[in-house]
């Protein structure tokens, strides 16, 4: 890493012994250069298998070198010049941006390893899935804010550069890192991820918008999701009677959920806290991809990462989160706020049209929403 040491969070196993994650191996990625491509269509990010995508590729060597020279922190180059570039597609690529691993050969024989994300100069109106996003420029600001809040568990943002053609972010490359859903033991990895975000929220507690002009999870944002979800639920679910009854039940509870979510303390919410956005190497874990970050109730991140997991794992993850965020004991409102966050999270997820092979999973989530509303 050329002396660049992020501050990882060490995950603990039974009796406090450090866990060393086992990896679910997959073949080495040998995709061609086209793997860097992403697409934009009708103002929303899509992958290259979507309809009529407009191609966006990673920058040329010349453009990348210029962005690196202008974007990297001066401490990283320390007056040295770039003598050569090695580039390979990221082993675990993002869906919506070009990502790669870069090896810089600097003067006096020093090598610097960098993870880079590249995207368009202008974020399409509405952003990805209509969520709180502002493209890579916003992600860079949110990531830098997260680093101010905590040096633990956040990869170092080495710099960013933008020009008329696009934006590049340069991060500390975590060698041999894999996403949490590939870590084994699987349940323990998810529980450790819950403790990781709980500790981050403890440090974030206050008013994160004082650190940067962040998006805010406010009433208008929370109220977006009910109508959008049921437009799609009505199309996917065959049982119109069940759908109509569920919508009426959601209407009776969701306004109360919104009030509950707005009563809690404000932290920096990651906003997309799935196990794909937590990476690990050795016994350490880091949080990545802060593009959907916003100020709001931290329980939303916990609800996201536990939403599809078996109940016993979810309960252990919730306990780990609560202990990390409130070492004494969680506030009395924690369970109520988490329940509201779960219903919000499901509504938000249910606005995403499922692929053909995911329709049954979508219907399972609709049934879970019905169960959660019945418990309200």
Describe the structure.
There is one protein chain. The protein is α+β, with helices and mostly antiparallel strands. Mean pLDDT is 82; it is low at 1-55 and 125-130. 41% of the residues are buried. The chain is built from eleven helices and 17 strands. A hairpin with a 4-residue loop joins strand 7 (98-106) and strand 8 (111-119).
Short key terms for the protein model shown above:
376 residues, alpha+beta, Phosphorylase Kinase, domain 1, Aminoglycoside 3'-phosphotransferase, Chain: A, domain 2, 5-stranded antiparallel β-sheet, globular, disordered N terminus
Q: Give the overall pLDDT as a whole number.
A: 82
Major beta sheet, strand line-up: 6-7-8-10-9
Helix/strand-derived category reads alpha+beta
CATH architecture identity of the largest domain: Alpha-Beta Complex
CATH H level of the largest domain: which superfamily?
Answer: Aminoglycoside phosphotransferase (APH), C-terminal lobe
Q: Major beta sheet, specifics?
A: 5 strands, antiparallel
Q: What is the count of distinct domains?
A: 2
> What is the CATH level 1 assignment of the largest domain?
Alpha Beta
* Morphology: globular
Q: What string gives the helices and strands in order?
A: EEEEEHHEEEHEEEEHEHHHEEEEHHHH
Task: Lay out the secondary structure.
Layout: E1 9-10, E2 22-23, E3 38-41, E4 44-46, E5 54-56, H1 61-71, H2 74-77, E6 82-89, E7 98-106, E8 111-119, H3 135-149, E9 157-163, E10 166-172, E11 178-179, E12 183-184, H4 186-204, E13 215-216, H5 219-223, H6 225-236, H7 240-263, E14 267-269, E15 278-281, E16 284-287, E17 294-296, H8 299-306, H9 311-325, H10 334-349, H11 359-375
Parallel strand pairs: 13-17
Antiparallel strand pairs: 1-16, 2-12, 3-4, 3-5, 6-7, 7-8, 8-10, 9-10, 11-15, 14-17, 15-16
Helix pairs in contact: 4-8, 4-9, 6-7, 6-10, 7-10, 7-11, 8-10, 10-11
